[in-house]
Amino acid sequence: xxxxxxxxxxxxxxxxxxxxxxxxxxxxxxxxxxxxxxxxxxxxxxxxxxxxxxxxxxxxxxxxxxxxxxxxxxxxxxxxxxxxxxxxxxxxxxxxxxxxxxxxxxxxxxxxxxxxxxxxxxxxxxxxxxxxxxxxxxxxxxxxxxxxxxxxxxxxxxxxxxxxxxxxxxxxxxxxxxxxxxxxxxxxxxxxxxxxxxxxxxxxxxxxxxxxxxxxxxxxxxxxxxxxxxxxxxxxxxxxxxxxxxxxxxxxxxxxxxxxxxxxxxxxxxxxxxxxxxxxxxxxxxxxxxxxxxxxxxxxxxxxxxxxxxxxxxxxxxxxxxxxxxxxxxxxxxxxxxxxxxxxxxxxxxxxxxxxxxxxxxxxxxxxxxxxxxxxxxxxxxxxxxxxxxxxxxxxxxxxxxxxxxxxxxxxxxxxxxxxxxxxxxxxxxxxxxxxxxxxxxxxxxxxxxxxxxxxxxxxxxxxxxxxxxxxxxxxxxxxxxxxxxxxxxxxxxxxxxxxxxxx
Length: 504
Description:
By secondary structure, this protein is an alpha/beta fold. Helix content is about 30%, strand content about 25%. The protein has helices at about 45-50, 75-80, 95-100, 115-130, 145-155, 175-190, 200-205, 230-240, 295-305, 325-330, 340-345, 355, 375-390, 405-420, 435-450, 465-470, 490-500, and strands at about 5-15, 15-30, 30-35, 60-65, 65-70, 80-85, 160-165, 195, 210-215, 220-225, 255-265, 270-280, 285-290, 310-315, 320, 335-340, 370, 375, 425-430, 455-460, 470-475, 480-485.
C-alpha cells in the first residue's frame, strides 16, 4: 500500500495561538481518512497547509513519496491536491460548465475557446464519477447539494487525486448526504484519496476507513473506523464523555403558549415565501422545524420576531395577539431569540462582553439610573454573574466580543436570552459552526429551559439536532408545513423525503 500524502512535524502558529504542534499525518492511496477535532483543534489549518493556503513554520510534506514545497493552491493543484471548502468558491452568475473550466479552458489552434471539447470532457467526468448535474444551469439556481457536486467536479477536472472535503455535510439534507457518500465511495474505487473534515461523528464513522483526532493542535490518535464508536471519538476530541441522551423531566403540557395561524409573507424579492403557516407550541415542549434551507425558515423567524411584516394571519403569545407589535414589545412579553446569524443579529462585535449581555435590555430599570443613565455597578455585577454561570471564556467582562471564539460568542447570546426568564424561545440554528462540546452545551441549556416550562421553537438544518431535542417535528417545504410528526412515529429518512417535497 502506497502513501499518498505524508506530513511530518508540522507546526503552525498565529499571534497568541499555536494551531498545529509537531503533527505527523499520513494517508494511503485510495483511503478515506476522517479528520476530527473541536473548533480550534487545528484540522482546517493543517489541511490549508497541505493545500498551500498557509506555509508551515516547521515540518515537511511528501506527496507520493516526494518531498514537496507547496506555497500556494496552484502548486497544490499541480501536485494533484484539490480542496472543497466549507464555503463554496463558485461564481453564482456563471454556469456549471463555466465554473468547472474557469482558469483551465481548452482552446483551438486559433486560441479560441473549444466549447464542444470542454463540454464533452466535463460530461465524461460527470458520468465517470456519477456526479450528475446540468452543465448549462447557473450556479445561483442550484441547491447546496448540487453546488457541492460542482466543487468536487471542479477539483477532479483539475486533476485532483487527493481530495480534501471541509465540513462537506454541514447544510445537506439526509438524501444529499447519501448522494455525496456514493460519490466519495466511487472516488475511492477510482483510486482517489479523500480527507473528510467533520464534527459529525456518525457520518465520519459511516464513510471513513480511518479517523485521525486532533485536540489543541496535536494528534490524539488515529483509529480504524470499524474499531471505534461515537462515544470513544467524542472522548478523544474533548477529553470526556459527551451527553447525547437528554432527560426531559416534564411532559409537554396541554397549555398552548404560542400559536401561529394562517401566516403569509413575501420575501425581499416581493415573492410569496410563507404560504399559510399554522403552528402551536405548548409549555415544556420543543417543536422542531425541519427543512432544506431556503424554504421559508428565515422569513418565519423574522415574522415571529417582528422583523418582517406578515401579509396576513395571526400570531398569539399566551392568548395575546402580537401580530403587529414591535420587536421590543414582543421581547418584553417574554420572547427570547437565538438568531441564525450570530454576527448579523446576535452580537455587536465591537461592544464588550458586558455590553452584549444587556443588549436589548439596556433600557430596563434594573440597568438605568433615573431613566437616563446606566447603572454601571449593577450592569457589572449582572454581567459577572452571567459570565460565571454560563462559563463564558473571556479575559474580562470588558473584552471585545469580536475576539471571542464562535462557541464563546454563542454562550454570550444564550446567557443573555435565557437569563431574561422567557416564556417562548426561538432557537434558530443554535449550534451552527459549533464543535461537539459547544453543541452539547447549547443542547443541555435548551432542554433545561424546556424542563422549566418554557415553550421552544427550534429551527435547524441539522436533522440529528432536530431529532435529538424535539417533542414534535414540523416539516417545512416551500413555505408550508407539509407534516407534523412525533419522532417515535417516523424516521430520519422519511423526514428527509418530506423535506424535499415527497409525500408521507
